[in-house]
Structures are given as structure tokens and as C-alpha cells.
Design a protein that fits this description.
The structure holds two protein chains of two kinds. Chain A is mainly α. Chain A has one domain. Helices cover about 80% and strands about 5% of the residues of chain A. Chain A has a two-stranded antiparallel ribbon with strand order 1-2. A two-stranded antiparallel sheet of chain A has the order 3-4. The model of chain A has no long low-confidence stretch (mean pLDDT about 90). Chain B is mainly alpha-helical. In chain B, α1 crosses α12 and α8 packs across α10. Chain B is globular. The chains are: A mainly alpha, B mainly alpha.
Chain lengths: ~325, ~450
């Protein structure tokens, strides 16, 4: 029993970690397309851009539900502490997602596509920014007393969270641009290739800023990275990140189609790994660990059994649908 | 306005969940309708089914998108608005929602991609199979979410340890006492709601003299389904009511406006329940009929509102009137469906224009009945969040009232915009009608008089 209560939360933390990582990547390029919408010349180009994600967006956002519900299932006390603390950014994110989600369908039925293109772009940008705020709000810490959040409605609003919000817009912009370069042709692909470079530079600037700021602001994060022997194991993380960034740039310059997207995904995963390393085992830094917020073993096992069956199935048919809609979306192709 | 955080949290949740339930009520039924049309298409090879399927798929897409985005909101609102409830009951409710996501949401969302964009990429059988998978997904989604909701109404199979509800028996939790009734009632409601929309659209086409063949198909299939489901709903609803009487008698007392449990209950047709004076004003009631329905005996007794102190009674006016709206619409739907079936049997369904006009203008009946039904069961659960276990006031998040009020305003504006456009676009898609550019094929096969064969042959022109 003792060891089960030790390991089950670890397994669940890993599962939720994977779900959140999948969400960030899958909905990342999806939101990225909304971020890139204002740069398109006309609605025909926007049709082409949207068409590359239209069959997938719904499934992509389901990973966000899995992240939220997964937290509720496995770490209900963390869910209950985080949501009230980050109430406003979470709700703004949800409302922004409402507008960009319905825009997929409304845009095609509407007389003029302009209005819903605007809603799609604004919703995507605002949702990305809010997700950055949520992420930053978590990393900078939430005050919890007796399992409940204590603090005001705007405690999350700091220069750091705003930095994280902008960082996520840049990151999703990079994912979106490299995705479009891979999945489209003609002018959209060419412009995406040009823009990918700028987004990459922005991502690296933001990553550097977050990497410098967090250890300076949070002694526990500095201790995690720079104390010995941790440093011996962790120094490759920034080095690999630099190498991947260089490779991403190189492949974009060479006009390669798939590798820049994969490199952008790898950059995201490395940044994500960095945040996990900085904060583990806190799930509500610096107040609660995964063990303190964990659901009872009976709940975690009941859900784990189903997950071991269902998650591989889900991954299987998600991959099938991506395979079904493989290949490029050509300029001028109709929407439905 | 007084910024009472509990009242505002309830108001916000009520608003977002009422907005949400409109779309599942439609998409659960509509996905089954699409799957049926797909099955007929594959089975008969007739284009008319495929054209109808494609037509309704466009409407489905708009409705489903609104259902998904408003559903994502709810999966986070448990935490944002009811964090103390989440902390207390997450061990029990959480996995039910988790199964909903893994066993239903991913199925729906992923195969919807094929349904919307895969028509030219996959063979007809796989296209139809995708519709079936989406229909199955919406149904299993209803299964899990209603299980979670029913556990809040009739909590069993758990123990409280260190101030937290922990699971003891999952079978009891999932299949808690009110769940089978609520699931059957809601699922049937969703199919019935959709049947009335389909019938309404079919009637609209016939009245306008356009898409006659498709309109007749829709009318026949819809009326045929509703004539079975609407009376069935009466039986399920009655059983659900008896189950509620057993487990939540005060909710039933509020529904019936029944104050004094020492006397046999009246069937109150209309009244204004006065909470202060503890009586019904302006009451029109049938003596003993309440007892007859609820206890199946003339002099049967059941608990009245006065059997509990006022602070344990639900808000009377909303429960009492919502119940009457639901039942009234239910009776209307039974009457309309049976009368439609009678006209069909007499062969005058497509020519009885006054009837077509009525059903074309009451496509909304199912939606309003569903919302009213949910108001009955959720308001009727008050003042409890988890019945007899946790009060609503004890489950709320530590978020200031002003913040909840601000986001409530945001939701009202956002949903107002999205809903108005959504309805407007769906209406336009319906006006455009099915795309019937391909030439119709002759269908010489003849079917017997039984309903299934009739439904199958319903695509035929008369």
C-alpha cells in the first residue's frame, strides 16, 4: 500500500504530463494558424491555411479537456487549488477558444468570411496568451492554505506571466509557420517559410529570458539546476536546446519541409522538460506536491485500468485520421 | 447588484450549462439520425439518403462546434467555480468525467473529422461507420456525464475519509440509484428533440413547396420515431419520478407543490406556490390524483414540503413551473406525434397544411422541455450540491463575487453572439436545403405495411 501511494501519483503525473505535452504541440500549430491569420493576403489563402487543421482541431482541443479532467481525476486537490487562483486567465482562455472554435464552421457558412477570420485570429492569439499566463502563474507560485487558494483575482498578473504569455504566442507562431510550410503550397508555404525564421528568433529570446529569470527569482529553481550533482546531469538540456534551435534554422533556410516542424516540436518539448525539471515534484508550486494532492489509490487505479485500454486506442485512431488527411492542402481547394 | 459569490457562481454555472445542454440534446439525436441515413444509403445504394445525410451533416457541424466549445468551458468550471466541491468529490466524480473524455470525446472529435471532411477520401461504408462511431461517442458521453450527475443526486458507494469522499464500490457509484432512469430519460429526450427538429424542417420544406421528396422522407421518418418515443418518454418519466420520490422526496414535493404530507396529494395543474405562507395560491388542482400517480393508490401518502425545515427546501417557483413546462411540452409532443401518425396512416399527412404549419413552428419543443427538465432536477436538488452530503454553499470557490460577476457578463456577451450567429447560420443552411444536383434514381421496390419497411421506403416519392 505504501509503495502504491508512492508510485501511482508518479504514473499519473507522467500521464498528465504527456497529455499536456500532446495538447501543446497539437493545438499549438492549430492555434499558431490563427496567430498567422492576420498575415494572409486574402480569404482564399486563409481557407487554405484553415483547411490544414480543420479535420483535426476538435480532436486537438480534446487533449485540453483531458489535461483539465486528468488533473481533476488524479490530483483533485491540485485542480481545486489552481483553478480559483488562475480564474481569470482560465476563463478568458475558454471564451477565446469558444470564438476560434466556432469560427471553423461559422466562417464557411457566413456570407463574408472576414468577421469570423478576425474572431479566429483574435481568439487564437488571446487563448495562446492566456495559456502562457496560466503557465507563468503556476511557475511563479500559488499561495494555498488548507488546500484552498488564498489571494486576489489578479495575483497572477506580473511581468513574468506576461512574458510567458508572449512566449507562448511566439512558440505557437513557430509551430504554425513550420506546419503550414509542410502542409501547404504556393504563396502560403513561401510566406510561412520566411516568417518561421522570425518566430524562431523570438522563441529563442523568450526561452532565454524565462531560463534566466526563473532561477534568479526562485531560489528553489536555481538550487535545482545549479547545485551539485544536479548540474552534471542537467547541463545537456540547454546545450541540446541550442543545437536543435540551430538545426531548425538551418532546415528552414534550406527549404526543408518536415524537419523544421519536427525541430520546432523538439524545442517545445525541451522547454517543457525544463519547466518540469524546475518544478518537480510540485504540482502547485511552491505549496503542494503531487503526493499531497493525489486522489485515493482506488480512484487512480480505476481510471488507470481504463486509460491503459483506451489511450492506445485513442492514439491509434488519432494517428489514422492524421494519416487519412496526409499530404498538402493546395491553394484554391474547397473547404468542405 | 449584490455580489453574493454563491448566488453568482450558481448563476454563472446555470447559464453556461443551460447553453451547453442545448447542443448535446441535438447532436446526440442528430448523430444517430446521420448514422441511420448512412446505413440506409449503404443498404439501398440510393442517393437521396446520401444527400440528406450530407445536408444534415453541415447542420450537425455547426451545432457540434458550439457543443464542443461550450463543453470545454464546463470541464474547467468545476474547478473555477466549485473548487471546494472538486476537492471533496474529485476522487469519485473525477474518474467518471475521465472516462467520458477517453471513451467518448476523443471518439466523437476524431471521427467527426472524417464525417466532415472525409467524404471524398473514404469508401461509403467507412464514412457511414464514422457516423455510427460519432453517434456511439455522443451516447457514451451522455452515459458518463449522467452517471456523474446522478451520483450528486443519489450518492452511494463511497466513504468520507479525512474530509474527502473516497470510492468504495465503483459499480455502485457508476450505477447509482437514479442513474438508469436519468440516462434513459435524457437519451430519449435527445432523440425526441431531434425527431421534432427533423419533422419541423420536413414540414417547412413541404409548406414552401421545395425539396418535396426530402421533406416527405424527413416527415415520415421523424413522425414514425416520435410516435414511439414520445409516449415512451411518458413511461420513462413516470418511472424516473417514482425513483425520485424514493430517494429525493422533497424534490417531488416541490415539483407537485405538495405541502402537507399527512393528506393525500392533489394533482396541481396550476398555482402560485407561496414559500412564506407555506401554501399554494390560485390553485387549480385535481384531488387525490397526485397520490394516484405517485403511489398508485387513491389515498397514498408521500412526504410534503413541511416535513423539512425551510432551509432544506429547494427554490419552489423554479422547480414547480419548470416541471409544468416540461410536462406540458411532453404532452404536446405525444399529441402531435400520434396525430401525425394518424394522418400518415390515413394518407393525408403531406396535405394537412394546418398540421404542417404547427409542427414547422414547434421544432423547439424538445429543447425547451430538456432545459425545463434540467431546471427541475438541478434546482430540485438544492440546497444540496451532493444530496444530503454537501451543501451548495459549502462547495463554492474562494473567488470574489465581483470576479464571478465580471466573467458572467463575459459569458453572456460571448454566448449571446455565438448563439445568435449559430442559429442564424443553421437556419440558413436549412433554407438552402439539401444539394440534390444528382439525378434521382427510380426505386421500384415495394415494401409492406410494417413501420420498419415504411421507414425504409420513406424516401420514395408519392
Amino acid at each position: 500500500m505504501e509503495s502504491m501511494e508512492m508510485y501511482l501519483p508518479l504514473i499519473w503525473a507522467a500521464l498528465i504530463g504527456v497529455a499536456v505535452a500532446l495538447y501543446i504541440i497539437l493545438d499549438g500549430f492549430d492555434l499558431g494558424i490563427g496567430i498567422l491569420f492576420p498575415f494572409a493576403r486574402n480569404e482564399t489563402e486563409r481557407d487554405q491555411m484553415m483547411r490544414t487543421v480543420a479535420p483535426f482541431w476538435d480532436g486537438n482541443e480534446t487533449w485540453l479537456i483531458l489535461g483539465g479532467v486528468g488533473l481533476f481525476v488524479a490530483f483533485p486537490r491540485a485542480y481545486a487549488a489552481i483553478m480559483p487562483a488562475l480564474y481569470l486567465p482560465v476563463i478568458v482562455m475558454l471564451v477565446a477558444l469558444v470564438f476560434r472554435g466556432v469560427a471553423f464552421e461559422f466562417r464557411t457558412v457566413s456570407h463574408s468570411k472576414k468577421g469570423w477570420s478576425f474572431a479566429f485570429a483574435l481568439g487564437s492569439i488571446l487563448a495562446s496568451f492566456s495559456q502562457g499566463l496560466v503557465l507563468g502563474g503556476l511557475v511563479q507560485g500559488i499561495n494555498v492554505v488548507n488546500g484552498q487558494y488564498v489571494g486576489g483575482s489578479f495575483d497572477w498578473l506580473t511581468p513574468f506571466t506576461v512574458l510567458c504569455g508572449l512566449a507562448l504566442i511566439a512558440g505557437y507562431g513557430l509551430l504554425g509557420a513550420t506546419w503550414l510550410h509542410m502542409k501547404t503550397d504556393a504563396e502560403v508555404a513561401a510566406r510561412s517559410q520566411r516568417q518561421a525564421r522570425y518566430w524562431l528568433v523570438a522563441v529563442l529570446v523568450f526561452m532565454a529570458a524565462v531560463s534566466l529569470y526563473t532561477p534568479l527569482a526562485e531560489p528553489r529553481i536555481a538550487a535545482r539546476w545549479f547545485s551539485l550533482p544536479n548540474f552534471y546531469f542537467l547541463w545537456p538540456v540547454p546545450v541540446v536546446t541550442a543545437l536543435v534551435a540551430f538545426a531548425c534554422w538551418y532546415w528552414i533556410e534550406r527549404g526543408r519541409e518536415v524537419p523544421p516542424f519536427l525541430a520546432a516540436v523538439a524545442l517545445f518539448l525541451l522547454g517543457y522538460a525544463g519547466l518540469v525539471i524546475s518544478n518537480f515534484p510540485y504540482i502547485v508550486p511552491p505549496s503542494l506536491t503531487i503526493w499531497e494532492t493525489s486522489a485515493s489509490p482506488g480512484s487512480q487505479i480505476f481510471m488507470l485500468i481504463g486509460t491503459l485500454f483506451l489511450l492506445p486506442m485513442v492514439l491509434g485512431y488519432v494517428i489514422f485520421v492524421y494519416w487519412l488527411f496526409r499530404g498538402k492542402v493546395h491553394a484554391g481547394e474547397s473547404y468542405h | 447588484m449584490d455580489a453574493d459569490p454563491i448566488f453568482l457562481a450558481r448563476l454563472q454555472f446555470a447559464f453556461t450549462i443551460i447553453f451547453h445542454i442545448i447542443f448535446p440534446s441535438f447532436t446526440i439525436g442528430l448523430s444517430a439520425w446521420l448514422a441511420t441515413l448512412g446505413g440506409m444509403w449503404v443498404y439501398t445504394g440510393e442517393d437521396r439518403y446520401q444527400q440528406l445525410m450530407r445536408f444534415w451533416t453541415r447542420i450537425f457541424a455547426v451545432s457540434f462546434a458550439m457543443g464542443v466549445v461550450s463543453g470545454i468551458v464546463l470541464s474547467y468550471q468545476f474547478g473555477t467555480n466549485w473548487s471546494r466541491f472538486s476537492a471533496f468529490s474529485g476522487d469519485v466524480i473525477g474518474p467518471l468525467l475521465g472516462y467520458e473524455v477517453l471513451a467518448a470525446f476523443f471518439l466523437e472529435a476524431t471521427f467527426l473529422g472524417i464525417l466532415l471532411f472525409g467524404f471524398n477520401r473514404v469508401p461509403p461504408w467507412l464514412y457511414t461507420l464514422s457516423a455510427c462511431v460519432v453517434a456511439f461517442g455522443t451516447m457514451s458521453s451522455a452515459f458518463w456525464i449522467l452517471s456523474a450527475n446522478s451520483w450528486m443526486q443519489t450518492p452511494v458507494g463511497y466513504a468520507v475519509k479525512n474530509g474527502v469522499a473516497v470510492p468504495v464500490d465503483w459499480l455502485k457509484i457508476v450505477f447509482n440509484p437514479s442513474f438508469p432512469y436519468r440516462f434513459a430519460h435524457m437519451l430519449n429526450a435527445a432523440y425526441l428533440t431531434t425527431a421534432f427538429v427533423v419533422v419541423g424542417v420536413g414540414a417547412r420544406f413541404l409548406l414552401a413547396g421545395r425539396h418535396l421528396r426530402e421533406g416527405r422522407t424527413m416527415l415520415r421518418m421523424g413522425i414514425g420515431l416520435a410516435a414511439v418515443l414520445a409516449p415512451l418518454q411518458l413511461i420513462i418519466g413516470d418511472q424516473h419520478g417514482l425513483n425520485t420520490l424514493e430517494h429525493q422526496p422533497i424534490k417531488v414535493a416541490a415539483m407537485e407543490g405538495h405541502w402537507d404530507g399527512s393528506k393525500p396529494g392533489e394533482l396541481v395543474l396550476f398555482a402560485w406556490p407561496d414559500e412564506k405562507a407555506e401554501t399554494n395560491r390560485y390553485s387549480i388542482a385535481i384531488p387525490y390524483a397526485g397520490s394516484l400517480i405517485l403511489t398508485h393508490s387513491w389515498n397514498g401518502l408521500y412526504p410534503g414540503l413541511k416535513s423539512v425545515p425551510p432551509d432544506q427546501r429547494p427554490p419552489l417557483v423554479s422547480v414547480f413551473f419548470a416541471f409544468r413546462i416540461m410536462v406540458g411540452l411532453g404532452i404536446y409532443m405525444i399529441a402531435a406525434a400520434l396525430f401525425g401518425a394518424l394522418l400518415w396512416w390515413r394518407g393525408t399527412l403531406f396535405e394537412t397544411r394546418w398540421f404542417l404549419r404547427i409542427i414547422a413552428n414547434t421544432w423547439w419543443a424538445g429543447f425547451v422541455a430538456v432545459i425545463a427538465g434540467w431546471v427541475v432536477t438541478e434546482s430540485g436538488r438544492q440546497p444540496w450540491l451532493i444530496y444530503n452530503v454537501m451543501r451548495t454553499a459549502d462547495g463554492v470557490s474562494p473567488v470574489p463575487g465581483a470576479t464571478v460577476l465580471g466573467t458572467l457578463g463575459l459569458f453572456i456577451v460571448a454566448y449571446g453572439i455565438v448563439f445568435s450567429f449559430g442559429i442564424y447560420y443553421m437556419n440558413r443552411l436549412i433554407k438552402q436545403g439539401p444539394d440534390t444536383t444528382e439525378p434521382p434514381q427510380d426505386d421500384l421496390s415495394n415494401f409492406g405495411g410494417n413501420p420498419i419497411a415504411a421507414a425504409r421506403s420513406a424516401g420514395r416519392d408519392i
